[in-house]
Amino acid sequence: MADSLASSVASLRSSIHLLDSSIDILDSGVNDFPRLTKVLQTTRHFELLPEPTLQEAQQALLDEISPSIAHLLSVASNHVERLARREDSLKAKCELQEGRMSDKQRSSAANRAGSASAVRPDPSASSSTSDASAKAIQLRRLVQKKERLKYAVDRLELQNRQKERELRKSMAVQ
């Protein structure tokens, strides 16, 4: 009986040893499970939606953004038109100022020429020379008057064109 018990104990010890080695093998395999679950876990990088749902979302976004875009476009176009009108008015003002400057230069040159001839009278001149100089002075005055009137007409024409442009633009805006 001791012999059969000894063989039973030996068989039991070998079974325990086999179970211990199996537990060690299982433990080394199970230790890595948290990492394996994370590695093997499926991640959805892209969500798949049906096409009608996608089209509805696009239409909703378009409906939400369209009024804002239209408003911004109208504000921008109004600002561009305002800047164009300002540019035109500044150009007209520049042309007007250039006309004034050229008329001032012409009149000052004529005045200098007139004063130079008036300063040097010839003492030996006869009455015909004085008549000729009087006519020359009168002619210069008439030329200056003509230039002043021409300038006034040019200025009025420029102002008229500018007002017509402003009127056309205001009518186009409405």
From TrEMBL:
UniProt-listed InterPro entries: DASH_Spc19 (IPR013251)
Keywords from the UniProt entry: Centromere, Chromosome, Coiled coil, Cytoplasm, Cytoskeleton, Kinetochore, Nucleus
GO cellular component: DASH complex; spindle microtubule
Ranges where the record places region Disordered: 94-135
Biological processes, Gene Ontology terms: attachment of spindle microtubules to kinetochore
Primary localisation category: nucleus
Coiled coil stretches, renumbered: 139-173
The organism's place on the tree of life at top rank: Eukaryota
Pfam families xref list: DASH_Spc19
Family: Belongs to the DASH complex SPC19 family.
Name of the protein in question: DASH complex subunit SPC19
The species this protein was found in: Talaromyces rugulosus (Penicillium rugulosum)
